[in-house]
Amino acid sequence: MDSNFSIYTTSLTLESLDIPPSNIFPAFIFGAVTYCTILFFNMTVLLTIALNRKLHKPMYILLFNLPLSDMMGASAFFPHLVSSMLSQNRSITYSACFVQALLIHLCGAGAFLTLSAMAYDRYIAICCPLKYNTLMSPNNLLKIIIIMWILNFTLIGSLLALNYRKEICRTQIVDIFCNNPSLMKLVCEDTKLNNYYGLFVTAFFEGLLLVIVVFTYIQILITVVVKRQSDAKSKAIQTCGTHLIVFICFHFTSFFAFIAHRFETVSPNLRRALGASAIIFPPILNPLIYGLKTKEIRQNFILFHHKKFSPTKQNNKKSGMKRQLQ
Questions:
Q1: DSSP symbols for 272-326
Q2: pLDDT in tens, 187-199
Q3: What tens digit of pLDDT does each residue of 263-302 get?
Q4: How much is the pTM?
Q5: Which of 66, 75, 161, 300 lies at a C-alpha separation of 20 to 30 Å from 292?
Q6: Among residues 12, 37, 164, 156, which one has the least CA distance to residue 92?
Q7: Euclidean distance between CA atoms 110 and 116, whole angstroms
């Protein structure tokens, strides 16, 4: 019992940021502003979807899960990062490191599952429009969301749990944040089972979900070409183009970040840059892309939605008053 407790409270050391003393405060401000920007953008998308009944459709309800995942990952990464910048102390307890790794992996896996579910939704909407209301009914939509999060917590939770009770021989984390590959490198015992299960989880998220998305978009492309309708083509490009860009960018950054841990020849700086980019850029770009490029969200965007105070309505009110006075 005492030995387990000592493991959980063991102080680990994250990789140094190598920030010159003169740049510490600007780096802290930049990190804090970036984190606040991520929260602001993602909360805006969440509120826009939640407060507009026009957006209470399967596609946008599925999209609602993406900002949740992004904020979870950003909140696991940025607070410790910016606080360590000021204190110049890169230490973290084993338990806190485990929680950070769990949240970051849940964020990445949640994003993959959400984007895959959205691809399925677009496939049904464009390729099987007559079955859409049946296949994407409220009950089926709820089942899809529940399955997404159960899969997420089961696969990622068990992946991290394989490392949690094992004895560690080292205390140096080889990344600027905690993740499963870095935690595995601390373990003294045999990690073959961890490796095999980790490869299975990676193949599931990076392989199977990629196949699903590629298949759905090929089917969408075929359907659009067969219909030969210009409005169908424009709708497919509008609804699917942004989604595909987000998925491809996120897929390749996360894929190369985790693969880099399995090759010793990969530059440590490149590995850290890829890992950080997979956490920093998607939470910033996702709300911007979906907020600005998706027509229905842009039209109902909470910050620019001035229905009640539009100039047109004010002019109509003034002209109505003039008619009454006349």
A1: HHHHHHHHHHHHHHHHHHHHHHSHHHHHT-TTS--STT-HHHHHHHHHHHHHHH-
A2: 887 778 888 888 8
A3: 666 677 777 777 788 888 888 888 888 776 667 777 776 5
A4: 0.83
A5: 75
A6: 12
A7: 10
